[in-house]
Hints:
Layout: H1 3-36, H2 44-53, H3 58-70, E1 75-86, E2 97-98, E3 103-114, E4 117-120, E5 125-128, E6 132-136, E7 143-146, E8 149-151, E9 170-171, E10 180-185, H4 189-193, H5 199-208
Antiparallel strand pairs: 1-3, 1-10, 2-9, 3-6, 4-5, 5-8, 6-7
Amino acid sequence: MALHDLIDEIRNYQQGAEDQKKKEKEALRVLMERIRYGESTGDVVRDFTIIYHGTLSEEATQPYRALQAQLSGKHLVLVVNEEEKIRGCPGIVAPDYIDPMFIGIERILRMGESRGITFNVTNGHIIIQTPYHLQRGYLGDWQKVDGPITLYSFELLGLGKTVDRRDTPMCNDLTEHFGSGLRVYTENIEEHIRQFCTKASYEKALTLLRRT
């Protein structure tokens, strides 16, 4: 076979692969649209990952299946949200690098009695069913909030992740992003929560939740 014939053969293979990719993409678009308008695969976790991750990969469902199993039944649940924030003024003129001393970690704690979990395929949220829950922000006190704990779609990007304090400057040209983390605990709650608040604060939360 002449080289130009081999080149033509390769191009035909490439074109065929591109055509198949286009067909796959269109089929996935139709699948997502039909699920979004109410149809289901019969597996709500798969529906959720198809819509919000655009994939049929079983691997993508694993964090959500683990969360679903973790929150089955009745549990005391602690949700820890972490997000990097700029604190103070790193410079009158935006610097090329942000010194880590100006980057803090803001934490929000939410705690309540879980009675199950719901995947909202319509808006991409996960709902931890609680009649009410407590919320505590940075240096704040516990506040009672009626209704469930909602894990919003943008929070779920950090599911299972921990945000550690930076020890090197952060590039300020949008090539780096502020870190975010979301962790859900149903076991050893006191051990985990004591990383973020005093024993007295934890005991107050239990009193507010009527678990003492």
